[in-house]
Amino acid sequence: MTDPKFPKLLDYEALKQQFGEEESATTTQNNPKETDNPSFKAEDGLFADPVKETKPGLKGTRLRSYAFAVLTRKEFSKAELIEKLALYAEDRNEVITLVDELSRENYQSDQRVAEMMLSSQMRKGKGPNQIKMKLKNKKVDHQLIQDELKETDWVQQAYELKVKKYGTDVATDQKLKAKQIRFLMYRGFEMDAIMKAIKRKSDTDFD
């Protein structure tokens, strides 16, 4: 039987059913007492307690099915996905080859990971330094991080956050200025953007 191509539209329920039933059957044979504790959790795509259970040693279509199930639930960076799959795979080299293919076919994308992280963190009022750190932790390429961050007006982001917290008035009191600076630095903004933001008199003042 030839190796099937990646489907363009993923049927997560079908994958879950196929994968879960196979895993359940294996578990039943090897550990009859664990039949009420299936190793595949649909809610988060993770195997239950890998420390306590025997490493499944997935390979071939079973490894591929698990990779699809994982990606259907959440976006992972390339480095994260390799480490996640390697926990349950028989051969790490097969994992690397599979993830390379997933990346080429755009099922996995560091670009999407960076875009989603940028969007979600901006909604939380986080500045570029915090976002950069989070993406580095995911081992996203440095240049990709820089490209994503430079598309945003961080002075505007800092100004909107300052207005939300302290209002539109420009602080003249040094203690209040220092307080605003510390607040924006804690949120991850750079000093240049902070100073421009706290000095801005209105949303249309870009000096």
UniProtKB/TrEMBL annotation:
InterPro entries: RecX_HTH_2nd, RecX_HTH_3rd, Regulatory_RecX, WH-like_DNA-bd_sf. Its main location: cytoplasm. Keywords: Cytoplasm. Residues 152-198 form the RecX third three-helical domain. GO terms for biological process: regulation of DNA repair. Residues 33-53 have a biased composition (Basic and acidic residues). One of its GO terms (cellular component) is cytoplasm. Transmembrane segments: none annotated. It is found in: Cytoplasm. It comes from the Bacteria. Residues 17-53 are annotated as: Disordered. Pfam families: RecX_HTH2, RecX_HTH3. Residues 109-147 form the RecX second three-helical domain. The keyword Acyltransferase does not apply. The keyword Protein transport does not apply. Belongs to the RecX family. Modulates RecA activity. This is Regulatory protein RecX.
